[in-house]
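User: Structure with uracil, tokens only please.
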Amino acid sequence: MDQHGSYLREMGLIRWRFGSQPTDRAGLPSKPETRSRDGGPKTNSANLAALAREADGCKRCELHRTRGKVVFGLGSPGVRWMFVGEAPGAEEDKQGLPFVGRAGALLGGMLGSLCLSRDDVYIANVLKCRPPNNRDPFGQEVRKCSPFLHRQIDLVQPEVVVAMGRFAAQVLLDSDQSLGQLRGRPHNFGENPVPVVVTYHPAYLLRSPGAKSKTWEDLLLARSLLT
Ligand code: URA
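Assistant:
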């Protein structure tokens, strides 16, 4: 079995077959990378780098006292997909990179099932610093930190955002509905609306592999929203 097939097998899913039309790596008709929205990829890269530097020195909440490294996010403006999780865990806090632990390996499998690699997506979290012992983020921390995520979405300009887990979904959609209520239909984020699809968090999938088939449905929904 090739690499794509083995990713799907890893997710416990049937193999997805693409059509014969020329496609890009997401299996969609090829199209130029540049967006027509304002701020070209170069400007947005520079602004994103400046934002990352700002986050690096951030002391807006108490998490700066206990963090190892700030985990700003990974990827480049202009990618079509953005994946958003909750907050860095222990491994992410050590490396300063999002989703590099066990949940990250599963996220890699999810990307592989879509014929995507980490280079094709932007990965971020709601919180940029690890809460001690991976406790749930406090409302105050979210309020102080979420402007970073909002600005990241503005600068990356993805065609779709996948909110992984209840926490990312509720924060991005400013909702208190459950993950089950938010799944299964597209939502919008922001004034220049970006579609958001809600799915399970990879850490939950590690504990509950039975939810992988629903995750696959969510990813296909997200994929259908690419322009
Ligand atoms: N869980 C998250 O929500 N984010 C990470 O970066 C790692 C684990």
